[in-house]
Amino acid sequence: MSFYLPATVGMPLAEVDTPALILELDSFERNLTRLQASLSKSPVALRPHAKSHKCPTIALQQIRRGAVGVCCQKVSEAEAMVAGGVTDILITNEVVGAIKIRRLIALAQRAQISVCADHPVNVADLNLAAHAAKIKLDVLVEINVGADRCGVAPGAAACDLAQRIHESSHLRFAGLQAYQGGAQHLRTTEARRQAIESACEKVRLTQQCLSLRGLPCPKVTGAGTGTYLFEAASDLYTEIQPGSYPFMDVDYARNDWTESAMPGFEHSLFVWTSVMSVTPPDRAIVDAGLKASSIDSGMPEIYGLSQARYCKASDEHGVIALSNGFSLSLGQKIKLIPGHCDPTVNLYDHFVCIRNDRVEALWPISARGALL
After folding, report:
1. CB of 139 within 8 A of CB of 105?
2. Mind spelling out the 3-state secondary structure of 162-226?
3. Does the structural domain 39-248 have CATH classification 3.30.470.30?
4. Are 191 and 182 spatial neighbours (Cβ–Cβ below 8 Å)?
5. Considering the entire predicted model, what is its pTM?
6. pLDDT given for residue 4 in this prediction
7. pLDDT digits (tens, 9 = 90+) for 60-71
8. Would you kindly state where each structural domain of the chain is located, as residue ranges?
9. Residues 6 or more apart from 100 whose CB is under 8 A from it?
10. Which single residue of 223, 340, 354, 357 could bond 240 by disulfide (Cβ 3.0 to 4.6 Å)?
11. DSSP 8-state symbol, 152
Protein backbone atom coordinates (compact mmCIF):
# COMPACT_ATOMS: atom_id res chain seq x y z
CA MET A 1 0.00 0.00 0.00
CA SER A 2 1.23 3.46 -0.87
CA PHE A 3 2.23 5.79 1.97
CA TYR A 4 1.13 8.78 -0.08
CA LEU A 5 -2.51 9.80 -0.25
CA PRO A 6 -3.72 11.66 -3.34
CA ALA A 7 -6.25 13.68 -1.35
CA THR A 8 -7.47 14.73 2.06
CA VAL A 9 -11.04 15.10 3.26
CA GLY A 10 -12.43 18.52 2.38
CA MET A 11 -10.05 19.09 -0.53
CA PRO A 12 -11.58 20.43 -3.77
CA LEU A 13 -11.58 17.87 -6.58
CA ALA A 14 -9.36 20.18 -8.64
CA GLU A 15 -6.58 19.78 -6.07
CA VAL A 16 -6.68 15.97 -5.92
CA ASP A 17 -3.37 14.57 -7.15
CA THR A 18 -3.28 12.22 -10.12
CA PRO A 19 -3.67 9.49 -11.07
CA ALA A 20 -6.44 8.83 -8.53
CA LEU A 21 -9.49 6.60 -8.47
CA ILE A 22 -12.46 8.83 -7.76
CA LEU A 23 -15.95 7.73 -6.83
CA GLU A 24 -18.78 10.18 -7.43
CA LEU A 25 -20.94 9.46 -4.40
CA ASP A 26 -24.27 10.80 -5.67
CA SER A 27 -24.16 8.55 -8.76
CA PHE A 28 -22.81 5.62 -6.72
CA GLU A 29 -25.64 5.90 -4.19
CA ARG A 30 -28.27 6.21 -6.92
CA ASN A 31 -26.93 3.01 -8.45
CA LEU A 32 -27.28 1.17 -5.13
CA THR A 33 -30.84 2.47 -4.76
CA ARG A 34 -31.80 1.53 -8.33
CA LEU A 35 -30.58 -2.02 -7.89
CA GLN A 36 -32.63 -2.47 -4.73
CA ALA A 37 -35.69 -0.85 -6.34
CA SER A 38 -35.43 -3.16 -9.35
CA LEU A 39 -35.76 -6.14 -6.99
CA SER A 40 -38.61 -4.73 -4.90
CA LYS A 41 -41.14 -7.21 -6.32
CA SER A 42 -38.77 -10.17 -6.45
CA PRO A 43 -38.22 -12.76 -3.72
CA VAL A 44 -34.56 -13.28 -4.66
CA ALA A 45 -31.83 -12.31 -2.22
CA LEU A 46 -29.04 -9.92 -3.20
CA ARG A 47 -25.46 -11.01 -2.57
CA PRO A 48 -23.32 -8.52 -4.53
CA HIS A 49 -19.88 -9.53 -5.68
CA ALA A 50 -17.10 -7.78 -3.78
CA LYS A 51 -14.46 -8.65 -6.39
CA SER A 52 -15.57 -5.47 -8.17
CA HIS A 53 -14.94 -3.05 -5.30
CA LYS A 54 -12.71 -5.00 -2.86
CA CYS A 55 -13.82 -2.57 -0.18
CA PRO A 56 -15.52 -3.52 3.13
CA THR A 57 -16.95 0.01 3.44
CA ILE A 58 -18.91 -0.51 0.22
CA ALA A 59 -19.88 -4.06 1.19
CA LEU A 60 -21.36 -2.81 4.48
CA GLN A 61 -23.31 -0.11 2.63
CA GLN A 62 -24.76 -2.79 0.35
CA ILE A 63 -25.71 -4.92 3.33
CA ARG A 64 -27.34 -1.98 5.12
CA ARG A 65 -29.48 -1.50 1.99
CA GLY A 66 -30.70 -5.09 2.07
CA ALA A 67 -27.99 -7.43 0.77
CA VAL A 68 -27.72 -10.71 2.69
CA GLY A 69 -23.93 -10.70 2.44
CA VAL A 70 -21.35 -10.55 -0.33
CA CYS A 71 -19.47 -12.81 -2.71
CA CYS A 72 -15.71 -13.02 -2.94
CA GLN A 73 -13.55 -14.79 -5.46
CA LYS A 74 -10.51 -15.55 -3.32
CA VAL A 75 -9.90 -16.50 0.30
CA SER A 76 -7.75 -13.40 0.74
CA GLU A 77 -10.64 -11.19 -0.44
CA ALA A 78 -12.88 -12.88 2.10
CA GLU A 79 -10.27 -12.36 4.83
CA ALA A 80 -10.23 -8.63 4.06
CA MET A 81 -14.03 -8.48 4.15
CA VAL A 82 -14.27 -10.29 7.50
CA ALA A 83 -11.56 -8.02 8.95
CA GLY A 84 -13.71 -5.08 7.80
CA GLY A 85 -16.86 -6.34 9.57
CA VAL A 86 -18.62 -8.42 6.88
CA THR A 87 -19.98 -11.62 8.43
CA ASP A 88 -21.66 -13.58 5.58
CA ILE A 89 -19.57 -14.46 2.53
CA LEU A 90 -19.89 -16.90 -0.35
CA ILE A 91 -16.61 -17.68 -2.08
CA THR A 92 -17.84 -18.21 -5.64
CA ASN A 93 -14.81 -20.25 -6.56
CA GLU A 94 -13.05 -23.51 -5.82
CA VAL A 95 -10.53 -23.34 -2.98
CA VAL A 96 -7.84 -25.92 -3.72
CA GLY A 97 -4.60 -26.69 -1.87
CA ALA A 98 -3.82 -27.35 1.78
CA ILE A 99 -2.71 -23.81 2.69
CA LYS A 100 -5.75 -22.12 1.17
CA ILE A 101 -8.13 -24.67 2.71
CA ARG A 102 -6.62 -24.11 6.17
CA ARG A 103 -7.19 -20.38 5.77
CA LEU A 104 -10.74 -21.00 4.55
CA ILE A 105 -11.53 -23.15 7.57
CA ALA A 106 -10.00 -20.60 9.95
CA LEU A 107 -12.21 -17.94 8.38
CA ALA A 108 -15.28 -20.16 8.70
CA GLN A 109 -14.66 -20.23 12.45
CA ARG A 110 -15.08 -16.43 12.54
CA ALA A 111 -17.91 -15.80 10.05
CA GLN A 112 -20.57 -17.50 7.94
CA ILE A 113 -18.53 -18.78 5.01
CA SER A 114 -19.61 -20.97 2.12
CA VAL A 115 -17.57 -22.18 -0.84
CA CYS A 116 -17.96 -23.87 -4.22
CA ALA A 117 -16.66 -27.23 -5.41
CA ASP A 118 -16.63 -29.07 -8.73
CA HIS A 119 -14.44 -32.12 -7.99
CA PRO A 120 -14.73 -35.02 -5.51
CA VAL A 121 -11.07 -34.74 -4.44
CA ASN A 122 -11.66 -31.15 -3.38
CA VAL A 123 -14.79 -32.22 -1.50
CA ALA A 124 -12.77 -34.83 0.40
CA ASP A 125 -10.08 -32.28 1.26
CA LEU A 126 -12.65 -29.76 2.49
CA ASN A 127 -14.32 -32.41 4.65
CA LEU A 128 -11.02 -33.51 6.20
CA ALA A 129 -10.14 -29.93 7.14
CA ALA A 130 -13.62 -29.18 8.49
CA HIS A 131 -13.51 -32.39 10.53
CA ALA A 132 -10.18 -31.39 12.07
CA ALA A 133 -11.66 -28.02 13.03
CA LYS A 134 -14.92 -29.57 14.29
CA ILE A 135 -17.11 -27.37 12.08
CA LYS A 136 -19.75 -27.89 9.40
CA LEU A 137 -18.85 -26.10 6.17
CA ASP A 138 -21.46 -25.09 3.60
CA VAL A 139 -20.45 -26.21 0.10
CA LEU A 140 -22.22 -25.45 -3.16
CA VAL A 141 -21.80 -27.47 -6.33
CA GLU A 142 -20.71 -25.22 -9.16
CA ILE A 143 -22.30 -26.25 -12.45
CA ASN A 144 -21.18 -25.18 -15.90
CA VAL A 145 -24.15 -23.28 -17.33
CA GLY A 146 -22.38 -22.06 -20.45
CA ALA A 147 -19.34 -20.02 -19.42
CA ASP A 148 -17.07 -23.06 -19.90
CA ARG A 149 -14.84 -22.11 -17.03
CA CYS A 150 -15.11 -23.93 -13.69
CA GLY A 151 -18.05 -26.15 -12.92
CA VAL A 152 -19.15 -29.76 -13.18
CA ALA A 153 -21.57 -30.79 -15.91
CA PRO A 154 -25.22 -30.20 -14.98
CA GLY A 155 -27.49 -33.14 -14.31
CA ALA A 156 -26.18 -36.47 -13.09
CA ALA A 157 -22.54 -35.42 -12.60
CA ALA A 158 -23.57 -32.44 -10.47
CA CYS A 159 -25.93 -34.63 -8.47
CA ASP A 160 -23.18 -37.19 -7.84
CA LEU A 161 -21.03 -34.42 -6.37
CA ALA A 162 -23.92 -33.06 -4.31
CA GLN A 163 -24.45 -36.57 -2.93
CA ARG A 164 -20.80 -36.75 -1.89
CA ILE A 165 -21.11 -33.44 -0.08
CA HIS A 166 -24.36 -34.51 1.57
CA GLU A 167 -22.75 -37.73 2.81
CA SER A 168 -19.61 -36.01 4.10
CA SER A 169 -19.45 -35.84 7.87
CA HIS A 170 -18.51 -32.18 8.17
CA LEU A 171 -19.93 -30.61 5.02
CA ARG A 172 -23.41 -29.38 4.25
CA PHE A 173 -24.76 -29.33 0.68
CA ALA A 174 -25.89 -25.70 0.38
CA GLY A 175 -27.11 -25.57 -3.23
CA LEU A 176 -25.90 -24.69 -6.71
CA GLN A 177 -23.57 -22.01 -8.03
CA ALA A 178 -24.77 -21.26 -11.59
CA TYR A 179 -23.09 -18.17 -13.00
CA GLN A 180 -23.14 -17.50 -16.73
CA GLY A 181 -20.24 -15.07 -16.95
CA GLY A 182 -20.11 -15.24 -20.72
CA ALA A 183 -23.58 -13.71 -20.97
CA GLN A 184 -22.81 -10.48 -19.13
CA HIS A 185 -21.39 -8.56 -22.10
CA LEU A 186 -23.42 -10.01 -24.95
CA ARG A 187 -24.43 -6.78 -26.61
CA THR A 188 -28.14 -7.23 -27.27
CA THR A 189 -30.77 -7.71 -24.61
CA GLU A 190 -32.19 -10.65 -26.52
CA ALA A 191 -28.82 -12.43 -26.73
CA ARG A 192 -28.38 -12.09 -22.98
CA ARG A 193 -31.93 -13.30 -22.37
CA GLN A 194 -31.38 -16.39 -24.50
CA ALA A 195 -28.10 -17.20 -22.79
CA ILE A 196 -29.79 -17.09 -19.39
CA GLU A 197 -32.70 -19.20 -20.62
CA SER A 198 -30.14 -21.81 -21.65
CA ALA A 199 -28.46 -21.55 -18.23
CA CYS A 200 -31.83 -21.97 -16.53
CA GLU A 201 -32.46 -25.18 -18.44
CA LYS A 202 -29.23 -26.60 -17.01
CA VAL A 203 -30.22 -25.50 -13.51
CA ARG A 204 -33.67 -27.05 -13.95
CA LEU A 205 -32.20 -30.34 -15.13
CA THR A 206 -29.91 -30.46 -12.10
CA GLN A 207 -32.71 -29.60 -9.67
CA GLN A 208 -34.86 -32.37 -11.11
CA CYS A 209 -32.03 -34.85 -10.65
CA LEU A 210 -31.49 -33.70 -7.07
CA SER A 211 -35.20 -34.05 -6.36
CA LEU A 212 -35.26 -37.62 -7.67
CA ARG A 213 -32.45 -38.45 -5.24
CA GLY A 214 -34.23 -36.80 -2.36
CA LEU A 215 -31.58 -34.11 -1.99
CA PRO A 216 -32.92 -30.66 -1.07
CA CYS A 217 -31.37 -27.72 -2.95
CA PRO A 218 -31.59 -24.75 -0.55
CA LYS A 219 -30.01 -22.21 -2.87
CA VAL A 220 -29.41 -21.44 -6.54
CA THR A 221 -27.07 -18.49 -6.86
CA GLY A 222 -25.46 -16.68 -9.76
CA ALA A 223 -26.13 -13.77 -12.15
CA GLY A 224 -24.21 -10.59 -12.87
CA THR A 225 -24.89 -6.96 -13.60
CA GLY A 226 -25.67 -7.65 -17.24
CA THR A 227 -28.32 -10.33 -16.67
CA TYR A 228 -29.49 -10.34 -13.05
CA LEU A 229 -33.10 -9.40 -13.80
CA PHE A 230 -33.44 -12.46 -16.03
CA GLU A 231 -32.23 -14.79 -13.27
CA ALA A 232 -34.41 -12.96 -10.74
CA ALA A 233 -37.49 -13.59 -12.90
CA SER A 234 -36.67 -17.24 -13.56
CA ASP A 235 -38.37 -18.80 -10.50
CA LEU A 236 -35.18 -20.87 -10.17
CA TYR A 237 -32.54 -18.56 -8.73
CA THR A 238 -32.89 -17.70 -5.07
CA GLU A 239 -29.92 -15.31 -4.96
CA ILE A 240 -28.13 -12.99 -7.39
CA GLN A 241 -24.53 -11.76 -7.50
CA PRO A 242 -24.19 -8.52 -9.52
CA GLY A 243 -20.85 -6.83 -8.96
CA SER A 244 -20.23 -3.91 -11.32
CA TYR A 245 -23.54 -2.06 -10.91
CA PRO A 246 -22.29 0.47 -8.30
CA PHE A 247 -19.68 1.73 -10.79
CA MET A 248 -20.45 0.73 -14.39
CA ASP A 249 -17.69 0.96 -16.97
CA VAL A 250 -17.13 1.46 -20.68
CA ASP A 251 -17.67 -2.19 -21.56
CA TYR A 252 -21.01 -2.47 -19.77
CA ALA A 253 -22.09 0.79 -21.39
CA ARG A 254 -21.60 -0.85 -24.79
CA ASN A 255 -24.42 -3.28 -24.03
CA ASP A 256 -27.82 -2.50 -25.50
CA TRP A 257 -30.13 -1.97 -22.53
CA THR A 258 -33.87 -1.78 -22.16
CA GLU A 259 -35.56 -0.75 -18.94
CA SER A 260 -36.97 -4.27 -18.66
CA ALA A 261 -33.43 -5.65 -18.66
CA MET A 262 -31.46 -3.07 -16.69
CA PRO A 263 -32.20 0.01 -14.57
CA GLY A 264 -30.47 3.24 -15.55
CA PHE A 265 -27.17 2.73 -13.79
CA GLU A 266 -24.72 5.63 -14.10
CA HIS A 267 -20.97 5.87 -14.42
CA SER A 268 -19.72 6.69 -10.93
CA LEU A 269 -16.11 5.47 -11.05
CA PHE A 270 -13.42 7.51 -12.79
CA VAL A 271 -9.66 7.68 -13.10
CA TRP A 272 -8.64 11.27 -12.41
CA THR A 273 -5.65 12.16 -14.58
CA SER A 274 -3.54 15.18 -15.55
CA VAL A 275 -2.28 16.37 -18.91
CA MET A 276 1.51 16.11 -18.73
CA SER A 277 2.45 17.01 -22.32
CA VAL A 278 0.80 19.06 -25.09
CA THR A 279 3.66 19.39 -27.59
CA PRO A 280 1.97 18.09 -30.79
CA PRO A 281 -1.05 20.06 -32.02
CA ASP A 282 -3.34 17.03 -32.27
CA ARG A 283 -2.23 15.03 -29.25
CA ALA A 284 -1.95 15.30 -25.48
CA ILE A 285 -0.39 12.93 -22.98
CA VAL A 286 -1.88 12.15 -19.57
CA ASP A 287 -0.30 10.50 -16.53
CA ALA A 288 -2.68 7.52 -16.48
CA GLY A 289 -1.43 4.56 -18.48
CA LEU A 290 -1.56 0.79 -18.08
CA LYS A 291 -0.77 1.04 -14.36
CA ALA A 292 -3.71 3.37 -13.78
CA SER A 293 -6.55 1.87 -15.86
CA SER A 294 -7.10 -1.64 -17.17
CA ILE A 295 -7.49 -1.93 -20.94
CA ASP A 296 -8.41 -5.65 -21.15
CA SER A 297 -11.94 -4.61 -22.21
CA GLY A 298 -10.82 -1.68 -24.31
CA MET A 299 -9.46 1.79 -23.74
CA PRO A 300 -10.96 4.10 -21.17
CA GLU A 301 -13.23 6.84 -22.43
CA ILE A 302 -12.87 10.53 -21.64
CA TYR A 303 -15.84 11.82 -19.71
CA GLY A 304 -17.59 14.85 -21.14
CA LEU A 305 -15.09 15.67 -23.91
CA SER A 306 -16.34 14.37 -27.27
CA GLN A 307 -13.38 15.80 -29.23
CA ALA A 308 -10.78 13.97 -27.17
CA ARG A 309 -10.16 10.22 -27.42
CA TYR A 310 -7.90 8.02 -25.30
CA CYS A 311 -6.20 5.98 -28.03
CA LYS A 312 -3.07 4.36 -26.61
CA ALA A 313 -1.61 3.33 -23.25
CA SER A 314 1.93 2.58 -22.14
CA ASP A 315 3.10 1.92 -18.59
CA GLU A 316 2.80 5.46 -17.24
CA HIS A 317 1.36 7.43 -20.18
CA GLY A 318 -1.96 7.69 -21.94
CA VAL A 319 -2.16 9.20 -25.42
CA ILE A 320 -5.14 11.46 -26.12
CA ALA A 321 -6.04 12.13 -29.76
CA LEU A 322 -7.61 15.55 -30.31
CA SER A 323 -9.87 16.51 -33.21
CA ASN A 324 -11.39 19.61 -34.83
CA GLY A 325 -8.83 21.96 -33.35
CA PHE A 326 -9.72 20.98 -29.78
CA SER A 327 -6.92 21.39 -27.25
CA LEU A 328 -6.09 20.49 -23.68
CA SER A 329 -3.93 22.60 -21.37
CA LEU A 330 -0.80 21.47 -19.61
CA GLY A 331 -1.80 20.40 -16.11
CA GLN A 332 -5.51 20.16 -16.99
CA LYS A 333 -7.27 17.34 -15.13
CA ILE A 334 -9.85 15.11 -16.77
CA LYS A 335 -11.96 12.07 -15.90
CA LEU A 336 -11.49 8.71 -17.58
CA ILE A 337 -14.22 6.06 -17.50
CA PRO A 338 -12.41 2.72 -17.07
CA GLY A 339 -12.88 0.09 -19.73
CA HIS A 340 -13.25 -2.59 -17.03
CA CYS A 341 -13.91 -1.51 -13.46
CA ASP A 342 -12.78 -4.64 -11.55
CA PRO A 343 -9.07 -4.77 -12.54
CA THR A 344 -8.88 -0.97 -12.50
CA VAL A 345 -9.99 -0.88 -8.85
CA ASN A 346 -7.29 -3.44 -8.07
CA LEU A 347 -4.63 -0.89 -9.09
CA TYR A 348 -5.45 1.56 -6.27
CA ASP A 349 -5.23 1.76 -2.49
CA HIS A 350 -8.21 4.09 -1.96
CA PHE A 351 -11.40 5.36 -3.46
CA VAL A 352 -11.33 9.16 -3.33
CA CYS A 353 -15.01 9.81 -2.66
CA ILE A 354 -16.35 13.03 -4.17
CA ARG A 355 -19.55 14.95 -3.54
CA ASN A 356 -20.22 18.40 -4.97
CA ASP A 357 -16.66 18.52 -6.33
CA ARG A 358 -15.12 18.08 -2.90
CA VAL A 359 -13.50 15.10 -1.18
CA GLU A 360 -15.94 13.64 1.35
CA ALA A 361 -14.02 10.49 2.31
CA LEU A 362 -11.21 8.12 1.40
CA TRP A 363 -12.27 4.46 1.50
CA PRO A 364 -9.48 1.86 1.67
CA ILE A 365 -9.53 -0.83 -1.01
CA SER A 366 -8.54 -3.38 1.58
CA ALA A 367 -8.62 -6.43 -0.71
CA ARG A 368 -6.42 -4.84 -3.37
CA GLY A 369 -4.03 -7.49 -4.71
CA ALA A 370 -5.86 -10.26 -2.83
CA LEU A 371 -4.95 -13.07 -5.21
CA LEU A 372 -4.34 -15.97 -2.79
Report:
1. no
2. HHHHHHCCCEEEEEEECCCHHHCCCCCHHHHHHHHHHHHHHHHHHHHHHHHCCCCCCCEEECCCC
3. no
4. no
5. 0.96
6. 86
7. 999 999 999 999
8. 13-20+265-364, 39-248
9. 75, 372
10. 223
11. B
